[in-house]
């Protein structure tokens, strides 16, 4: 029964016959019971609270998911401040309801017997007429996270298979070259009985080069497959880029490449590991340099985009064809004559370790753009909002 119909009944209640009023009330009760049954059967737990933090609705799923004291559990009509449920969840919920924290989704782990359950707490607003309510949603994401873990393991195994095949292919050529020159060295000894240093050096120098090549392959492979000891600390993306540009300017000058930067003036701190992020950006810039053999322009820009900071690295080089574009982050895929094909694989891994994303667009003959997105931590977003409010207040004055 809709609110409009109920209000109409209230307006005409004196004119309604008793039997008609009874029928309408019974129909309303049936609808309410049905709605309540549906509400209680939802897979997610819900608690709807008013601005005064009074619990308006709470379903049975919420009671089942969140550990609570049976004597003071979440119940309709009471204040959520007085309910006795898991301390960590309650502190977070009250921090959000009182405006101390942003209403971001947060995960909590609970031990149930021998099993660990993972619950995600999130918030949404409900507006009814001029009143606003907050719906606190609790979802059991244990199975979802387990599926994601299994998927990552499967993807990791597939990636390792690809990398194993790649490294086997990579080491074949230097091993073949070493074998050939050892055979030539043996024949030279057999033919002459002895060799001068100059004669032997022709063969030994090739062996040295191929050993170095094998060492490079091994080092790159280990870097790509080993877990990264990433230490995320609050830092400035712009500072990392400024330092990198200073380092790259001499090389860019030698290659007739102009580096142009467009860095947004105010960028909140993000969680990053300067060593790894610098190496990641360096790999992208070196690829851009290689794509502009006759010189060109490299643009590096940063921008605040909602809850993310973006880094854009753009060149006007040779570009990448559509078929190669879908494979560039795969291990041992390369369009260059030299290199192991692990550079962009490492870049992708570094960005994922920073909980970010990387995207690429390219057009042959016009250039390539890599875009990196890194999340801004909640406390930094709060600081940004406060700064914007201060600026707005200053402008009003």
Topology of this structure?
Elements: H1 3-11, H2 18-41, E1 45-49, E2 55-58, H3 60-65, H4 87-97, E3 106-112, E4 115-128, E5 131-140, H5 142-192, H6 197-225, E6 233-235, H7 237-254, E7 257-263, E8 270-272, H8 274-290, E9 296-305, E10 308-315, H9 322-325, H10 343-353, E11 357-363, E12 367-375, H11 378-396
What does this structure look like?
The chain is of the alpha+beta class. It folds into 4 domains: 1-41; 46-140, PAS domain (Beta-Lactamase), CATH 3.30.450.20; 147-225, Signal transduction histidine kinase, dimerisation/phosphotransfer (DHp) domain (Helix Hairpins), CATH 1.10.287; 233-383, 2-Layer Sandwich (Heat Shock Protein 90), CATH 3.30.565. The protein contains 11 helices and 12 strands. The chain has helices at 3-11, 18-41, 60-65, 87-97, 142-192, 197-225, 237-254, 274-290, 322-325, 343-353, 378-396, and strands spanning 45-49, 55-58, 106-112, 115-128, 131-140, 233-235, 257-263, 270-272, 296-305, 308-315, 357-363, 367-375. A 5-stranded antiparallel beta sheet has the order 2-1-5-4-3. The protein has a 5-stranded mixed beta sheet with strand order 7-9-10-12-11, with helices on one face. Strands 6-8 form a two-stranded antiparallel sheet. Strand 9 and strand 10 (308-315) form a beta hairpin. Helix 5 packs antiparallel against helix 6 and helix 8 (274-290) packs antiparallel against helix 10 (343-353). The longest helix has 51 residues, at 142-192. The relative contact order is 0.07. The model has no long low-confidence stretch (mean pLDDT 81).
